[in-house]
User: What shape does this take?
Amino acid sequence: EWLRIAGYKIFADGVPPALTAWMYEEYPGHPGVYGSLVLPGATDAEKVQNLTDVIIYMHRKGYQLGIHSCGDHSNDVVVDALTQALADYPRPDPRHYIIHGDIVTPEATQRMAQWNIGVNPQPGIKYVFSDFGDIVMGPERNARHFCSGQFIDAGVWTPISSDAPVVYPNWKQYVETAVLRESQASGTVSG
Assistant: This one.
């Protein structure tokens, strides 16, 4: 009677530095490596179905979902699953959101705005690891990494967080980084 669980965190994929965020394009210097979903399944289709089933089940139970999703392929799958859950089982103000949203396609961003799906990026990760992002993801993808402006312009609710202890929680620096997109190490602007 004293405890209420309002929501759950679900992991969809990994992270770009570990080459485990699920991307449409392979990681530079790693032929055939795209990352993957982290749910059980022998094939990508089975993993997608398992993630979709979990999202729909938890949504139907009335929980708010925060879904760790980094890669553009993973984020498209998460948005597909959330919009299916919201369309099939409407309920007022569920406030589902993507945690991280490192790389999100413009199309997924528009659908997030349409369905009131939020995103919680971490500009501190961009600040600390931006130069490494060029190596891991390539300069073009790194330029689209944690694009808070893309979300805000589309009307997606976009709080930010530090993801501590991954990076030190310095809110002033991370608000600045969300706007200026400068690397801590080199000062290079990314995107």
The radius of gyration is 16 Å.
